[in-house]
Amino acid sequence: MKTYAGNQFKELKIVLGGRELKYTLKRTGRRSIGISIDKNGAITVAGPYRVSETTIRELLEKKASWILDKLSAIEAQAAGSDGPRAFIDGEGYLYMGRVYKLKLIEDRLLKRPVVRLGENSLEVYHKVPEKPEELRAVLREWYVAQFAKKLEGRLPAYSQQIGVSPGRVTIREQKTRWGSCSSSGNLNFNWKLVMAPVEVMDYVIVHELCHMKELNHSSNFWALVGKVCPDYKNHRKWLKENGNKLTLD
Questions:
Q1: Is 96 helix (H, G, I), strand (E, B) or coil?
Q2: For residue 127, is pLDDT > 90?
Q3: CA-CA to 44 of 20 to 30 Å: which in 34, 53, 239, 249?
């Protein structure tokens, strides 16, 4: 425990949504617990001296959705660029709400490029230097495959929870739509959703499945969405503010 100007600081860790996060606990004379996240993603919790660390952890877990959405928005902003991508070492690419740095690795034994996800990097193993458009195609193929795997595991579970049976399911690349549901129960999803936090991706899946019961945006529809996804408003807001950053362009 460090003390500065009468305040006590302690560095702690917590796992939220499968992510291990560091946060600074600041003990003060305030009466309530406050959580703040700066522009660099540093989390600070200001709490009264009398409140236990267990209580503070319970609050962080309760606020997990807000914290993760906030961090993902900061990371999405960091991954954004003012111009077209160059597909070079060090560029940031979003995957499941986190930014991974592109790492190009030469391997002359390969017949075709291979993409692997490292701890903090998105690694592309290739035989010869690839042109930007070729690297984009390789990465797109990998993203589509990853989204298909996520969808395969999550769609049946949410379908059962909502009580619907989807027809044909298609994965597409669209500029403005994240998903759609036809009157016959066929679903379309944008593969770029795999770049978003898992909670945001799940929201879109739930959204389209709920349209199988309510093919509108009535109060009944949103009530149904809210039963399965209580924080859907936060996820809608995240998509509205950061959806343009879910791209390989």
A1: coil
A2: no
A3: 239
Last-in-domain residue among 30, 62, 94: 62
**Res 161 pLDDT > 70:** yes
Chain-centroid distance of CA 136 in Å reads 21
Average pLDDT over residues 101-127: 92
Edge-to-edge strand ranges of the sheet holding 2-4: 2-4, 7-16, 19-28, 43-48, 34-37
Q: What is the pLDDT of residue 66?
A: 87
| Cβ pair 248, 136 in contact under 8 A | yes
How crowded is the C-beta side of 202, counted as CA atoms within 13 Å?
22
Q: Name the domain count of the chain.
A: 2
Helix H segments across the chain?
53-62, 64-79, 132-162, 198-210, 219-228, 232-242
